TrEMBL record:
This is alpha-L-rhamnosidase. Residues 805-889 form the Alpha-L-rhamnosidase C-terminal domain. It catalyses: Hydrolysis of terminal non-reducing alpha-L-rhamnose residues in alpha-L-rhamnosides. GO terms for biological process: carbohydrate metabolic process.
Amino acid sequence: MKKLIYTVSFMFIVQILFAQNIQVEETLLENRRNPLGIDIVHPQFTWKLSSDKRNVKQSAYQIQVAGTKNSLENEEGLLWDSGKVNSPQSVHIPYSGETVTSFNKYFWRVKVWDQNGKSSNWSKIGYWQMGLLNKNDWDAKWISASYSENSGKRPSPIFRKEFDIEKDIQSATAIITSRGLYEAYINGERVGDEYFTPGWTNYDERIQYQMYDVSKMVKNGENAVGAILGSGWYRGALAWEDNNNLYGDNISLLMQINVIYTDGSTDLITTDSSWKSSKSHIQSSEIYDGEMADASKIEKGWKRPGFNDSEWYNVRVESFGYDNLIATLNEPVKKQETFEPKEIIKTPKNEIVLDFGQNLVGFVKVKVNGKKGDTIKLYHAEVLDKDGNFYTANLRGADQKNTYILNGEGEEIFFPHFTWQGFRYVKVEAANEYIKPENFTAVALYSDMDETGSFYTSNESLNQLQRNIKWGQKGNFLDVPTDCPQRDERLGWTGDAQVFSRTAGFNMHVNNFFEKWLKDLASEQLENGSIPHVIPNVLGDDATGSAGWADAGTIIPWDLYTMYGNKRVLEEQYKSMEGWVQYMENESENNLWNTGFHFGDWLFYRPEDDNDGRAALTDKYLIAQCFFAHSTQNLINTAEVLGKEEDVKKYSELLKKIKKAFAKEYLTPNGRLVSSSQTAYVLALNFNMLPENLRSQAAKRLADNIVNYGYHLTTGFLGTPYLNHVLTRFGHHDLAYTLLMQKTYPSWLYPVTVGATTIWERWDGRKPDGSFQTPSMNSFNHYAYGAIGDWMYKTLSGINSATDPEGVGYKKIIFKPHTNNNLVSEKVEAQYENEGLTMVNGELETYYGKIKSFWKKDEGKIKMQFEIPVNTTSKIHLPTKEISSIKEGNRSLSSLNDVIINKDETGNVIVETGSGIYNFTIEN
């Protein structure tokens, strides 16, 4: 018995001695998990680490890459072995091995060493597959339908081909793209689960292709491959005034399947003149107007081998070429959450309406048994009017209608293929027997980005606001960042995207999403440097150059760098950033930019009876000068990161001149701005346009304006994102918190009080009397005002990243939560009884792992928990000046030897830590 005890004890000691202090938890290649179709010859590796110990750092790493999994495991014939590299870097490390080639698959793994020289185990093996690196890799031909289309509605064409496989298959890879949208099939099965492929880009310059592993879909013997196309963004109506066929009037398909047999030989199945085409059962499918499908026109079996296509048309081979084909960088659109009807409503107008309880973007799937020729029509809307009737006036020219005609052959399932709707409510026109809750399911669609952040508090109204912000992002991050998902617009407005980009990065992993969009922005930029209002640009070369909109070209790259440590995006966008700054400089006279069209502080709040100027229109050229300075500052910051010293000097001098011109034109000697609006002071303060000695009094003027306006904001799209940040920065945090908690309009919580489940375009989209704002511009799913989420994460939960080159991307974390959130006026307090926050929990998944900031007020104490990922450090600002009042766990703070204790400029305690979970209790 003693021998057994000794053996067990010895084994336990051995386990402790040899336990791994650090482990590789997850690996990413180009910020994705095992991606297919990479056309970057030096792709970047990232990995996340874990440890059950504190203060763990990486001191070195080793990456190995091979052409097969066995080679990697046996360390034979490696294409790259970095060897042991003494470096703490664990994100964005470029491949530096042998030259990669098209189509090939590569396998990789990494191990790391901690600060004590102990190594981890090798990570799990990851892989990636290269795409097509040059146009000679394409053997497929572009094909389109040869039949003539009637004017008006355009049916979706279908294509097919059969082929034989006579050998055993090792692998099969499909590479597909289209001019238009596509869905592809092999032997009756859908290829992939993505929607709206190949995505929306500047098609004249960039058309994405997708790569799929179809090894299990292709079989020995007879096979069939097919596809169906939709008009999509390529030739569908976009924007206004019958804006059709923007990129072309003919949709076409390009597809090839690369087959590798077990004997090492290869084969290609490609689109070419041997394919056949016909009209599908989809009679029309347009983004704004919806889809019409007649199931009685489905040609059974066309996706499978053995189908008789002798009556089909020969295809037409097109000569588009391959010069503008690129691999897909961002995450595709996929099905996400589903919703069942909460209620079936019979409106005062005697219409039948389904309420799904959430304003979402996607479609409604219908599952029915019925008679041949019966029709089901679905109309989509975001809201009901004050009488409870179905409301579609705000859709403008968009029908948002899906029509399904039954074939009467048992259970039938309908959903649109090449369109989507923005809706909470769906009006159904059909026979009564079809209108049952179980026959309808709403399916949300959005780009398949990981959700990275969560924000939860003791206040349910704030929690609903956070949900609304997220759903606004989900509904409008559909391959490009759109302004709204329902009316005849759905465009990639640059102004909306830039004001929200920081909040977007808290909620979801938007690195690749925005990097792809920025490439289109650069490709659409005019030769003179001006940037269009929308990307991709479908409004023409005259719709460019508006301050606060075009500045997306400098703001979003810098945001991506600070959020993700993504230096490459700065390198790739630098020319575009510099072009925009030079455009503003060229348009200026004596460094004052006061020319051209500008949207200004779009949709700011101004009541009709406002005659005293408190909510005054902000001078648009004042705004332009502020953004001129801001973009120049972003360019200076970028030049510093990239080591462009001459540019730093050049643009630093320019920035001084811009601010001097601002002061001369818009600032009185006593520090008053010529525009007395909230936005004027917010932008001037946020972008440091005022001399330091005048900033405090300017912030006081801003605060007084807000108080005099009944503790309400009046800012629009450009002022709102920075409003609370400025108030907190200049000592008016309680006023910022008051604005957040304000429940009468204009405010963030007013829509919450009337049942909103997304962010509105206008502060008073629905007025207190139940009436609506101007129908021509009144979206109920418009994320711009959701930019308050950035302040909520950074200030209430306190999660911030350092911005120095060694600290970006949350390598160095700054925790500075504001736990003292009170209301500034007894008058306001009376409106919001018990509205002070007692708990906030914020979490963010980064490239290093999960960050957490939690605090709770409990019986005279503040309890706080912070989680810091391995290989990072943090500075935690605690809300007390007394070190003796702080415990970490059950120990006094001063007794800890694994942290550094300092004080900030106000005397509050700062605790500097490494990785781990820290639990503080502060006696209040």
